[in-house]
Amino acid sequence: MPWENNGGGGGRNNGGPWGQPPSGGGGPRKPGGGNTPSLEDILNRGRDRFQGGVPGGIPGGRWAIVGGILALVAFWGLNSVYTINPQEVGVELQFGKPKTELSMPGLHFLLWPIETVERVTVTENQTTIGSTSTGGRQSNDEGLMLSGDQNIVDLSFSVLWAVSDPSNYLFNVRDPEDMVTNAAESAMREVVGRRPAQDIFRDDRAGIAVEVQQITQTILDNYGMGVRVSQIAIENVAPPTEVADAFDEVQRAEQDEDRFQEEARSYANTLLGGARGKAAQMREDAAAYKNRVVQEATGQADRFDSIYAEYVNAPDVTRKRLFLETMEQVLAGSDKTIIENGQGGPGVVPYLPLPELKNNTVRNNSATSTGDTSTSGGN
């Protein structure tokens, strides 16, 4: 066999497969009785193996070595060429130290294993603190927090964050995601501990979210994490399960109070509007009455001025006219008839019951009119 010619052991298998004689067998020995081969023997045996084939008599050993080298080269190439996805950036390490340049999305090359690459996702991440279960009640104690007025609230919220400095994100903190969670939870507990429960439940959720975001960003910047917090979203706030029913009763009472106040304000506005309408109407009526009285007084004054002008032109005629008009107005409703002396003639008695005669005349005229109407009806 081929390996029998490499050890110089004759035609017998005294040298083993690699030309080394078995323990206790014949073969070249060093002075002193040792059986360790010399450097020259090792080089000769190596040269023989490369020239004559691989051990065991397998033909084509040289091509197998070339194939192995090519496989190593291919393996090295696969590890030296890498791809960065669109939502990622790469941080190349040279002897474990990060480079300042970042690898943008695309195909890149490095000298492996001297250089390696770490990939970081730069899209926005969402971390939820305080998981919720069916019915909006939280299933663990992670979201239980003590408010400023000594009430316990069960709160869940989300932190939206993204990587702003990949190198700091990878190497400044051991577990960045856990650090974001702890920082946001600590900030939320700090803010809730300073606020009354009513602010958290309803009154000032937006202000609490903004304050928590600022405190969280400050904590992460102090650690140099290379993370930017974009938003804190408070998703659910509820009382603990043990006092949920009592809290719901309080909430319903507060809602009833608000409803009653709204109804009272609406009723007050209705009454006030009616009163204001009536007041406006009274003001308009008073203004109209004022305008009418003023206009009448103005008309009378103008009439007096016109009469006075005529009086100045003809005083006697005007005085007599005024006297007659005045007497006509005064005596128009009187039942007496006055006859001046010398105006009635010789056949006029100075006094006659003219009012009675007048009344009789009116009654006779009425009866006559009634009789004529009846006759006409009979015909």
Automatic annotation (TrEMBL):
Residues 243-270 form a coiled coil. GO terms for molecular function: peptidase activity. The keyword Hydrolase applies. It is found in: Membrane. Residues 1-57, 355-379 are annotated as: Disordered. It is a single-pass membrane protein. Its main location: membrane. Residues 1-35 have a biased composition (Gly residues). Residues 364-379 have a biased composition (Low complexity). GO terms for biological process: proteolysis. SUPFAM superfamilies: Band 7/SPFH domain. Keywords: Coiled coil, Hydrolase, Membrane, Protease, Transmembrane, Transmembrane helix. Residues 79-251 form the Band domain. PANTHER family: MODULATOR OF FTSH PROTEASE HFLK (PTHR43327:SF2), STOMATIN-LIKE PROTEIN 2, MITOCHONDRIAL (PTHR43327). HflC and HflK may interact to form a multimeric complex. Belongs to the band 7/mec-2 family. HflK subfamily. HflC and HflK could encode or regulate a protease. This is Protein HflK. It comes from Devosia rhodophyticola.
